[in-house]
C-alpha cells in the first residue's frame, strides 16, 4: 500500500506509526500552554486515536530517512522558521505573519469539543477572556474579520429600509464582496472624511439620514474602522460619534481588525474603545500572528443573535479548539496580557514603521498618510516611480511588496536588520525615478492587487 510521508518538522519529534493506511504523528514534544486550561490524554498520545484494524508496527526510520532529508533540505515555509522565513521579508500585509511554535503547541493541548453545542472549553475560555479585555458581556469566535463584520451588521439591522454609514475606504464596502448587500440587504453610504484621515462627528452629521423623509434610506448603523490605513481615530472623536449615535437610536459597530494597534500605540485601552460600540470585530490573524480567526464582542443579546446568523451562513464550528488555542496565545504574547497591550510585541512593529518613514523621508521621499501605527504609505507619484517598478525593485531585493503601502508586523520588526538595508536599496532606486516614462498611478485602488 502506498502511503504519503509526513515530514518531520524542525524542533518537533514525531515518531511515525502506520495506522489505517496513513502515517500518524504519535507524539509531539511540545510545551503545554496553560491558558487553554485543558489537557486531553488522547490528544497527547496521537492526533488520530481510533484503534486500527490493520497492523500498527513501527516503521523503520531507514525507510523514510531519504524522504525526511529531502524535506528538511527544502526551503522552509512553515511556522517554525518564524521571522527568518517568508513572513520576515513580506511587507504586503500583516496577514502574512506566521504562527509561532508556542501557538502550534497550544493546538496540541487544546480541547476538541463541539462549539455549535457551545461545549468546547478552549473556545469558551478565549471568548470569555477577550470579552473581559474588551469590557463586553459576550464574544463569539469567527473564522475571519469579514465574517465578524457581516455577523455584526446583520445582528444590528432589524427592519428595512436601512443603511450603513462608513468611510469610503472601509473594508466592509471595498473588500467584503458586497456582503452588506447580499447578506443584510442594506445600502452602504460611503463618506469621504474632510480631514483626509478619519471620520469625525461633523462628517457623520452631514451624511446621516435621520429624518422621516420617505425618499431617503434611514441610517441604522454607523460602522467605524479603527485603525484605517494605519491611522488612529482618536478616542475623543469616537466618543463624540457614539453620543450622536445613541441620541438618534443608531447602532454603532467597529471594524476593529487592527484596533489592537491603536491600543498598543497609546490611543486608549481596549475596554475604553469597545465600551463606545454596540459590537466590535477583532482580528487574530493580522498583526497578532495567529493562523486564523477573529472574534466579535458585544452584549449577550447581540452575540446570541450573531451566533444564529453565523450558523445560517455555514460558520458553525465543530472542534473549534484548534482555532481558539493559537488565537489565545497570540493575544497573550503579541498583544500583551493587559488592556493596554502591556508586554506585547506590537510596539516593535510601530517602531520599525517609524524607522522606515525616516529612511524614506531622509532620502527625499514624501508620504500620503502619517505613520501612527504599523503602516507606512509612500508617495510614489511624487517620487516619479510606478507601482510596478517599485514592486519589481522589491522583488530583486528579496522583499515582497504590493504597492505604496508597506505594512510592518512584529516578524518584520524582529528581522529589521535584514529588511532595512534592502528597503534602503529599493527606496534609492525608486527616488531616482523608478521607471521613466511609465504611466503613474495614485497607488493601488485595491490593496490586494497592485496596479
TrEMBL record:
<dbReference type="GO" id="GO:0005829">
    <property type="term" value="C:cytosol"/>
</dbReference>
<dbReference type="InterPro" id="IPR001597">
    <property type="entry name" value="ArAA_b-elim_lyase/Thr_aldolase"/>
</dbReference>
<dbReference type="InterPro" id="IPR015424">
    <property type="entry name" value="PyrdxlP-dep_Trfase"/>
</dbReference>
<dbReference type="GO" id="GO:0006545">
    <property type="term" value="P:glycine biosynthetic process"/>
</dbReference>
<dbReference type="Pfam" id="PF01212">
    <property type="entry name" value="Beta_elim_lyase"/>
</dbReference>
<feature type="domain" description="Aromatic amino acid beta-eliminating lyase/threonine aldolase">
    <location>
        <begin position="90"/>
        <end position="381"/>
    </location>
</feature>
<dbReference type="InterPro" id="IPR023603">
    <property type="entry name" value="Low_specificity_L-TA-like"/>
</dbReference>
<dbReference type="GO" id="GO:0008732">
    <property type="term" value="F:L-allo-threonine aldolase activity"/>
</dbReference>
<comment type="similarity">
    <text>Belongs to the threonine aldolase family.</text>
</comment>
<dbReference type="GO" id="GO:0006567">
    <property type="term" value="P:L-threonine catabolic process"/>
</dbReference>
<dbReference type="InterPro" id="IPR015421">
    <property type="entry name" value="PyrdxlP-dep_Trfase_major"/>
</dbReference>
<dbReference type="InterPro" id="IPR015422">
    <property type="entry name" value="PyrdxlP-dep_Trfase_small"/>
</dbReference>
<protein>
    <submittedName>
        <fullName>Beta-eliminating lyase</fullName>
    </submittedName>
</protein>
<keyword id="KW-0456">Lyase</keyword>
<keyword id="KW-0663">Pyridoxal phosphate</keyword>
Amino acid at each position: 500500500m502506498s502511503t504519503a510521508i509526513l515530514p518531520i518538522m524542525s524542533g518537533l519529534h514525531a515518531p511515525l506509526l502506520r495506522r489505517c493506511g496513513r502515517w500518524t504523528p504519535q507524539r509531539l514534544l511540545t510545551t503545554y500552554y496553560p491558558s487553554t486550561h485543558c489537557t486531553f490524554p488522547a490528544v497527547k498520545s496521537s492526533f488520530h486515536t481510533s484503534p486500527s484494524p490493520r497492523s500498527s508496527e513501527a516503521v523503520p526510520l531507514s525507510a523514510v530517512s531519504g524522504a525526511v532529508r529531502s524535506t528538511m533540505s527544502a526551503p522552509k515555509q512553515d511556522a517554525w522558521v518564524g521571522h527568518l522565513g517568508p513572513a520576515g521579508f513580506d511587507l504586503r500585509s500583516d496577514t502574512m505573519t506566521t504562527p509561532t511554535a508556542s501557538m502550534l503547541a497550544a493546538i496540541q493541548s487544546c480541547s476538541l469539543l463541539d462549539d455549535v453545542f457551545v461545549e468546547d472549553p478552549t473556545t469558551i475560555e478565549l471568548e470569555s477572556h477577550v470579552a473581559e479585555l474588551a469590557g463586553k458581556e459576550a464574544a463569539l469566535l469567527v473564522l475571519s474579520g469579514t465574517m465578524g463584520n457581516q455577523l455584526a451588521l446583520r445582528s444590528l439591522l432589524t427592519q428595512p429600509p436601512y443603511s450603513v454609514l462608513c468611510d469610503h475606504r472601509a473594508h466592509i464596502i471595498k473588500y467584503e464582496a458586497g456582503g452588506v448587500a447580499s447578506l443584510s440587504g442594506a445600502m452602504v453610504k460611503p463618506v469621504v472624511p474632510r480631514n483626509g484621515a478619519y471620520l469625525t462627528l461633523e462628517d457623520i452629521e452631514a451624511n446621516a439620514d435621520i429624518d422621516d423623509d420617505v425618499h431617503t434610506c434611514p441610517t441604522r448603523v454607523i460602522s467605524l474602522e479603527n485603525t484605517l490605513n494605519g491611522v488612529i481615530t482618536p478616542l475623543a472623536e469616537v466618543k463624540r460619534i457614539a453620543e450622536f449615535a445613541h441620541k438618534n437610536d443608531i447602532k454603532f459597530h467597529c471594524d476593529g481588525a487592527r484596533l489592537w494597534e491603536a491600543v498598543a500605540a497609546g490611543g486608549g485601552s481596549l475596554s475604553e474603545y469597545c465600551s463606545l460600540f454596540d459590537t466590535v470585530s477583532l482580528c487574530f490573524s493580522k498583526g497578532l500572528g495567529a493562523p486564523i480567526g477573529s472574534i466579535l464582542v458585544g452584549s449577550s443579546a447581540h452575540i446570541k443573535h450573531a451566533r444564529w446568523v453565523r450558523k445560517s451562513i455555514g460558520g458553525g464550528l465543530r472542534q473549534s479548539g484548534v482555532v481558539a488555542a493559537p488565537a489565545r496565545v497570540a493575544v497573550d504574547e503579541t498583544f500583551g496580557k493587559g488592556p493596554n497591550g502591556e508586554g506585547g510585541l506590537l510596539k516593535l512593529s510601530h517602531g520599525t514603521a517609524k524607522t522606515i518613514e525616516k529612511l524614506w523621508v531622509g532620502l527625499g521621499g514624501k508620504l500620503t498618510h502619517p505613520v501612527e501605527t504599523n503602516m507606512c504609505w509612500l508617495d510614489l507619484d511624487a517620487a516619479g516611480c510606478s507601482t510596478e517598478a517599485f514592486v519589481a525593485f522589491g522583488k530583486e531585493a528579496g522583499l515582497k511588496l504590493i504597492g505604496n503601502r508597506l505594512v510592518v508586523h512584529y516578524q518584520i520588526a524582529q528581522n529589521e536588520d535584514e529588511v532595512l538595508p534592502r528597503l534602503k536599496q529599493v527606496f534609492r532606486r525608486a527616488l531616482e525615478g523608478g521607471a521613466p516614462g511609465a504611466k503613474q498611478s495614485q497607488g493601488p485602488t485595491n490593496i490586494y492587487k497592485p496596479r
